[in-house]
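Worked problem 6 (solution included).
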Amino acid sequence: MTRLLTHLRHVDLAVPDYEKQLDFYAGVWGLTQVAEDSGISFLAAEGSPEQYIVRLRRAEEKRLDLISYGAATPADVDTLAEQLLAGRAQLITRPGTVDTPGGGYGFRFFDVDGRTIEVSADVATRTHRRIEEKESIPVRLSHVVVNSPDLDRTRTWYEQHLGFALSDSLASPHMGEVMHFMRISNQHHSMAIAKGPHTSLHHISFELRGVDEYMYGTGRVLRAGVRKIWGPGRHLAGNNTFSYFLDPHGNTVEYTTELERLDEDSWHPHVYDFSQPEVTDQWGTANAMSEIVAKESFNDVDRGCFTAPPV
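Solution. The predicted structure is:
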């Protein structure tokens, strides 16, 4: 199908301890709070033209509120909505005015696992700046990874309904395929789908300026006492660096840089055996991948499946 999505805009989280979560993202993690209203905060990356890349909402239960993608034009938004309806996807809203910072034109719908997805166009850009050398704060949102109990069903749905393409997969002789890296541009992945015991958020990844800034950031977060799960290292699939931490509500967040850009005309997906240590970490500097590390990113069962967020 024709690719109508352009990029990842933001990831929205609901949490019971709103103040603690806000202190983490607007403090040690390095985002900038740009707006707040009645228990909802919008957090931007200083190097990104997006109005915000993370939204936090005060709620009784932890959940993933939504994942938001951009489209080039309102006409593309309308076309995508029509295609989703024709494919029997469940729309939450019809295309119309978006009532969040930057405005725009968009709509929301459920994916095959019940996550709320938003697509929008004509969102005003935010004044941003060049991140300086040794400045260890996020430049932009890099990618999001979700857990699915039916890996191939979710992959097929995103290919058929949203125009994602497969870049690479991870597998092992004992477990079969466990992750699909999916793209909507020449960026190796804007999303990945991990095999998990339930539908949930796996991790949110934030791009830093370069390897030096990524290492400074990793060290800064470690010195702040934030629990590190895995890293620092460099993956084979995507060729990006990684340092994974837990936010105060147990969501995994990643600092990364140098995610691979592909020649889409000549690219052929690989299936990498993640039981080989050089696949998970080319450098050999990270703590070894293990079941304990993997389970940290299973996260809690998402309470938001097929339930739209209130805002």
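Discussion: The mean pLDDT is 97.
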